[in-house]
Amino acid sequence: MTVKHFDLASDIDHCSMCATCTYVCPVFRRTRMEGHTARGHIHLIDAFLLRPGGVVNTDGTIAVSDAPKITREFEDMLDCCLRCYKCLDVCPSGISTVNIFEDGRAEIARRRLLPKLSDTITSLILASRTRLHVAARLGWLGQMLLSLFWRPKHVSRGDESLGSARRGADVRGRSAFKSPADDAFWFAGDIAVPKIAPRFFLGSDFARARAPRRKKALVAATNAGAVSGASLEEMRDSIVRRERRQRVGYLVDCMTDTLYPAVAEATVKVLEAAGCEVVIPEDAGCCGAPLLGTGDSAGFARMAKATRDLFMSLDCDYIIASNSTCAKTMKFVYPERLGDGFNEFSERVRMDFEVMTLNLDKLRIEKLDELIGWHDPCHQRYAYGVYREPRELLRMCAHYNERAGENECCGFGGTFCVDFPKMAQGMAADKAAFLRDNPEKEIATTCPACLYYLNQFSANEGAGRRAVHLSEIVLRSISERA
Ligand code: SF4
Ligand code: SF4
After folding, report:
1. Radius of gyration for the chain, computed over Cα atoms and rounded to the nearest angstrom
2. Closest ligand (CA of 16)
3. Per mean pLDDT, which range of 69-78, 246-255, 429-438 is the poorest?
4. Which helix (H) or strand (E) holds 14?
5. Which ligand lies nearest the alpha carbon of 29?
6. Which CATH architecture has domain 8-112?
7. From atom 2 of ligand 1, which residue's Cα is the shortest distance away?
């Protein structure tokens, strides 16, 4: 399967140098370096990859060299980007900025003699859910062993009377899963990483009980005309089921699975309270987004095809994710990069809260007497393009006042927070200060990476705030009534 690459030369030629992208770029606002803007990135790509001859000076200016080559400075400039899509959202020329950056990285990877070690490790671990679980389990063991010799600095989430973060997990049966609101942070120097969950979501009894059964897959395949010979009884089952409930396939992303399984549990509980049948294929892998980011186009295509084939075999009305990065990748990037064969799949993709919103009449939400804030994950707002719906759902579930600054990036940005930790931490600290200045003690969002970063820095900065997933808030609001 071939991955469509953008016509770099043509797209770059359409850049009018208007600088609209400059004003919205969170990185440029910190560094004031032209090479960090979308305009700078695409002209660097032009100079280095299309018309070799460019070179980046140490002060960030670009000059022409007689001996062009891909330099560390060029790569650093290109890597110093949150992939937040804000530039793509505002570009009046409709330039597909982030996609151009990804293609630039893919081209650099292609020209490299040896692949980058971190990219190779990412590709290896994400190639299957089993490998991810093995790696995460080893990480968990490492954390446990280290705790024997070195006392980790656990961060207090502060006053337990803040909201009722665990109550959502308690309704409809107690939860054994770890929530983003739990005290579970591990410190290595100044860097805090979330403690890996002792129990992953996939593989748990809760998830297994929702695994698609063989018969359903057979019926689905028969309905799709792929297999003949299903019995009348099987076909009747399928028709009855279709009339009765919406069938929702749930791609549980890697972070939610291994770090915040209570989020996945809350999502399932809400959708089931809304009358949906949720199916969770345990052999679903990664959506492939991280591989596209590292320039591994072939790996991305392989994962996208596997994800599409698996979920299409389940005959779902909707395919959901509770991570906005996975949702935007499956809905928009698959057909854009891999062609029309993904259209039918992508049309069924939704964010989890969209399916909740479609079934509000069955949820019987009762508004919590709590003031809860909101954080826009960049990929939800600027890449998936949804702004109002999650706010409206939050407003139904709790008291919510929209505030300027909700759309400021948390600073995570995938590998950005690893490659440029000081800048990422500065952004996160600013966000934590913003949260501290507002009265809301809990902040709802829809991205596990934002949950990690918001909670880490809210704790570090003494902001006394905690981030929770929107599904957890919705679950609390329907507790014991629906
Ligand atoms: S907003 Fe678009 S057209 Fe304007 S400088 Fe940026 S990339 Fe070029
Ligand atoms: S994706 Fe975000 S960080 Fe990267 S250039 Fe665009 S606005 Fe700047």
Report:
1. 23
2. 1
3. 69-78
4. none
5. 2
6. Orthogonal Bundle (1.10)
7. 91
**CB under 6 Å to ligand 2: residues?**
24-27, 37-38, 41, 81-87, 97-98
- Of 91, 96, 100, 382, the one to substitute when testing ligand 1's pocket (max ligand atoms within 8 A of C-beta) is 91
Q: How many whole angstroms from 312 Cα to the centroid of ligand 2? A: 34
Comparing C-alpha atoms, which of 431, 112, 92, 470 is closest to residue 256? 470
C-alpha 480 to ligand 2 mean position (Å) = 44
pLDDT tens per residue, range 400-413? 999 989 999 999 98
Measure 404 CA to ligand 2 centroid, in angstroms: 20
Ligand 1 and 21: CB distance under 6 A: yes
User: Does 430 score more than 70 pLDDT?
Assistant: yes
Q: Which of 143-157, 230-244, 324-338, 340-354 has the lowest mean pLDDT?
A: 230-244
- At residue 350, the 3 state secondary structure works out as strand
Residue closest by Cα to atom 4 of ligand 2 = 81
**Residue 146: partners with Cβ closer than 8 Å, 6 or more residues away:** 152
Q: Which among 254, 141, 263 has a CA at the least distance from the CA of 206? A: 263
Q: Whose CA is nearest to atom 8 of ligand 2?
A: 25
pLDDT in tens, 96-107: 899 888 888 888
Q: Tell me the residue ranges of DSSP E strands in 348-465.
A: 349-351, 372-374, 442-445
Query: What angle is formed at CA 334 by the lines to CA 227 and CA 49, rounded to 5 degrees?
Result: 140
Which region among 53-62, 290-299, 301-310, 334-343 has the lowest average model confidence (pLDDT)?
Answer: 53-62
pLDDT band (50, 70, 90) for residue 167? very low
**CB burial string 325-337: b at 16+ within 10 A, e below:** bbbbbbbebbbeb
CATH of the domain spanning 364-477: 3.40.50
Q: Give alpha helix (H) positions in 14-156.
A: 20-24, 26-31, 38-45, 72-79, 86-90, 97-111, 117-126, 129-149
The full set of domain ranges for the chain reads 8-112, 126-358, 364-477
Q: Specify the long-range contacts of residues 110-118, CB closer than 8 Å, at least 24 apart.
A: 110/295, 111/70, 116/294, 118/294, 118/415, 118/418
Which two structure tokens, joined as six digits, stand for 226?
């792929």
354: tokens are: 């969209």
Strand bridging mode 54-56 / 62-64: antiparallel
Q: Which residue has the tokens 């003949």?
A: 228
